[in-house]
Every structure is written in C-alpha cells, then in structure tokens.
Fold:
Amino acid sequence: MTDAKNTNGAKMNDVTFIAIGLVIALIIGVAAVFLASGDPDGLESASLYVQGEKDLTSDAPEDADPEAVGLGTFEYSSPFPDYSWEDLGKMGDIIALVLGIVIVFVLIFGVSRIIKIKA
Structure:
C-alpha cells in the first residue's frame, strides 16, 4: 500500500485515508438530514427564471412540476423516494442517506480495484 503524508509530516496508509473519508461523508450525510431545506429545488427554480416562466418571488408554474410533465413518458419506482424511508421519519432519512453513501462507496471502491488490477 502507498502512504500519504498529512500536514504534520506523519504518514497515513490508504486504509486510514479511506476510513477518514468515509466517516466525513457519513457525518455530512447525517447532518444534511437536519440542515437541508425542505424545498431545495433551486436549480429548477433558477432555470424557470432564466426561461422567463417564473419571477424571483413567485411560485413555479404547475406544469413545471417534473412529476406532472413526465407522466406517461417514463416511470420507475425509487427504493428511497425523496431520500427517505417514509415510515421511520427522520431516522428513515438517516438510514436512506447512510445506505446511499455506503452503496456509492462500495461501487467506487470496486471500480477502482478493477482499474488498478487492469493497470
């Protein structure tokens, strides 16, 4: 394994580096449950403003709702709609985020191992 140096010159192995990164991601994910906006569609709102379909202080038009626009074109069922496990409240949100972080971590770690083996 390769070692990375931290700011005070001490060496840190890959496992420690990955573990610290995973812990930081989990802390941010859990904190997001309590700090994130309940209506975070800023990108959608900004695009409607740029297109002239919305004023800065008005609500989005009803036909701008992606659920209404997409009906009949493509449908799927999300395992965790709105990043939550609805029956469990805030704890369900935390579980969904932690599972998502772990799944993405495992996928990225697996792909990086495959790339490292082939290189």
